[in-house]
Amino acid sequence: MTPERHPEPTPPVLTVADGCATIRLNRPQHMNRLHRDDLLVLRGHIDALAADATVRVLVVTGSGRMFCSGYHLGDLGDATSDADAARRDPDLFEQTVDALEALPMPTIARLNGSVYGGATDLALACDFRVGIAGMELRMVAARLGLHYYPNGLRRYVSRLGLQAAKRLFLLAEGAPADELLRIGFLDHCAPDEAALDRCVQAIMAALAGNAPLAVRGMKASLNAIGRGEFDLPAMRAREAACATSDDLREGLAAFAQKRAPVFRGR
Q1: How far apart are CA 143 and CA 100, in angstroms?
Q2: CATH of domain 13-207
Q3: What SS3 state is found at 108?
Q4: What is the pTM of this model?
Q5: Domain map of the chain by residue range?
Q6: Rounded distance, CA 138 to CA 257, Å?
Q7: 193: helix, coil or strand?
Q8: Residue 125's closest CA among 162, 99, 92?
Q9: What is d(CA 150, CA 169) in angstroms, rounded to the nearest whole number?
């Protein structure tokens, strides 16, 4: 039997092509766990994407059979320089996930396998989540004695509801894919990897084909409402920017002419 081969482990890898970006977690031998250095690289990728108006959509995924097992717990408990750095910067994970949530373009978590610990919040920070049959979610903070960071709790409650968040955090039991669909953690669940890719590609195509100003503006407004922040002037400003945009004129012309629109994001 030929042993399974994995790509050389690296920090998260960013690729961009034709207005679509992918961030791939790339430590498959260790279930794509995230070390402090990985978070610093991931944050750099996110900051670069935030400044790139040409990117229409981002996909976050993992190498191998698991999406991500969360933060490397050894960095919290070992007497190493990385562990010391992690203790000096305890909010790095939270800040990185917050930055992912705040990206202007829509984001998709391509969950190629199970998702544990902090990686569950990494997926929740994305706008859409597509999973694969056989995956599970497990939030183990209570079994480790950890109180989860505040913005992660907010995301759980605002996206999944209070009772679902309590079950996942306080019971610390694994939730299979069908339950994740039921509570809204997953938007779709694919039977195999080929179907997973088809589903992700279909969502990417739909997002990339819509007007970028409208998509980005409504994403920002919807996320603010989800946080309980109803900033009417900011929403009116986004509404007005779309109302006077070239994209709206193109969309109306394409609709009248029964053709596909060509949006420029302006």
Answers
A1: 27
A2: 3.90.226.10
A3: strand
A4: 0.90
A5: 13-207, 211-257
A6: 50
A7: helix
A8: 99
A9: 13
